[in-house]
Amino acid sequence: MILTQSPLLIASVPSVSSVVTLFSLSQVPLMISSVPPWFTLFLFSASSEPSEVYSIFLRPSAVHPISAFFFEFLSSAGPEKLTDKSMFRERIMSDPIRLQYDGRIANLIMDGDDKNTIDDRFLASFRNAMNEVEKSEARVMVIRSAKEGFFSNGFNPDVFLGAPKDKIRASFKALLVMGADQFFFPLPTISLITGYAAGGGAFIAAYSDFRFMSMKKARIGFTEVNLAMTVPSSGLEILSRKIGYQNVLQTVLTGNLFKAEECLRYNIVDEICEDDETTVKKAEAMAKKIAGLPRTSLLSLKKNAAHWIPRDHFDRLIEQDLDEVEKLMVLPDCQNAFAALKAGKRPKFD
Questions:
Q1: What are the backbone angles phi and psi of residue 208, rounded to the nearest 5°?
Q2: How confident is the model at residue 94 (pLDDT cuts 50, 70, 90)?
Q3: pLDDT at 120 over 70
Q4: CA distances from residue 329 to 118, 229, 235 in whole angstroms, order as listed
Q5: What are the two backbone dihedrals, phi and then psi, of residue 198, each rounded to the nearest 5 degrees?
Q6: HEC states along 134-163?
Q7: What is the structure's pLDDT at 154?
Q8: Is pLDDT of 52 > 50?
Q9: How many other C-beta atoms can be found within 10 angstroms of the C-beta atom of residue 180?
């Protein structure tokens, strides 16, 4: 193990189990000329949170992939740019949102952690993906998950646990703005739900124009009350326009996770299917149908359907909502609930 804050040249590594640990990456110019297979490189940034550990695990191949990776990075960024920590992270960390195009169908694929939990990277990536789709030639966007058993399980507890008010405000605002972006998205949207959608993930599922849900293991729940949280009025007003006021009350006040049949009854989804495979087929068939329609007509119809719902109204509401969010999220009940959630326990309240 080598601990260094000086410029470092690695010419070779003698053992397949060797690990090089680098502290203060932003201060370490690094070049690698040759390393053996099965080499694992862990990068710790001294300025990062303890959870921010990046790794590359390399399997044997005819060409040593670690050398190719670093040489490609150096050739495109230049050695002087290797000290740019943010650039390095972008190369190493996979994006939590991926876009795949199938002709005129844009698939927005949530592919973050094992439960697709929401954090700041997730939110920024989701908005960037929507912006890209809007500028593309796509005519419909399908929101789906790459994770078995999960659509999106809501906020990662680390986003709020012990966070200062300004950080809480910024993260929650990003979710509310993203939700409004999805609701007002100028092209048709489809939610394909084959796993758990809780908290913020439930809103992503419900905000689309067409919502297909599997009856197998999928669940949807607006579970904020279980964490002593609130749902801001801007988010609930959009949800009311999607599922109806009475349905909002009966779903958000209980915090229950609902099976497909209940979601259909509460108007959270539009169609339920007996299994995941059928759900995918039905959602993709709808996407294919829409993709064959004129783009100019689709854009006009979505704009006209929402003409009576001013976007700036929601923008004003969001700013008002955030004052209440700040106050609630730092209270002991909420912070203790996130701590319990992180520990895999059920929150308890007096």
A1: -75, 165
A2: confident
A3: yes
A4: 16, 6, 16
A5: -125, 155
A6: HHCCCCEEEEEECCCCEEECCECHHHCCCC
A7: 96
A8: no
A9: 20
Burial of 49 from C-beta contacts in 10 A (0-12 / 13-18 / 19+): exposed
H/E run at residue 96: none
- Tell me the C-alpha distance between 172 and 19, whole Å: 38
Q: Is the Cβ–Cβ distance between 7 and 28 less than 8 Å?
A: yes
**What superfamily in CATH does domain 97-342 come from?**
2-enoyl-CoA Hydratase; Chain A, domain 1 (3.90.226.10)
- How does pLDDT run across 254-302, given as a tens digit for each residue? 999 999 999 999 999 999 999 999 999 999 999 999 999 999 999 999 9
Q: Residue 232: enclosing H or E segment and its boundaries?
A: none
Q: Write the secondary structure of 164-221 as one string of H (helix), E (strand) and C (coil).
A: CHHHHHHHHHHHHHHHHHHHCCCCCEEEEECCEEECHHHHHHHCCCEEEEECCCCEEE
76-103 average pLDDT score: 61
Measured CA angle at 293 (ends 292, 295), to 5 deg: 115
Q: Whole-model pTM above 0.90?
A: no
Q: Which residues contact 90 (CB under 8 A, 6 or more apart)?
A: none
Radius of gyration in angstroms for the set of CA atoms belonging to the chain, rounded to a whole number: 23
Distance of CA 170 to the CA centre of its chain: 16
Q: Please state the domain extents for the chain.
A: 8-92, 97-342
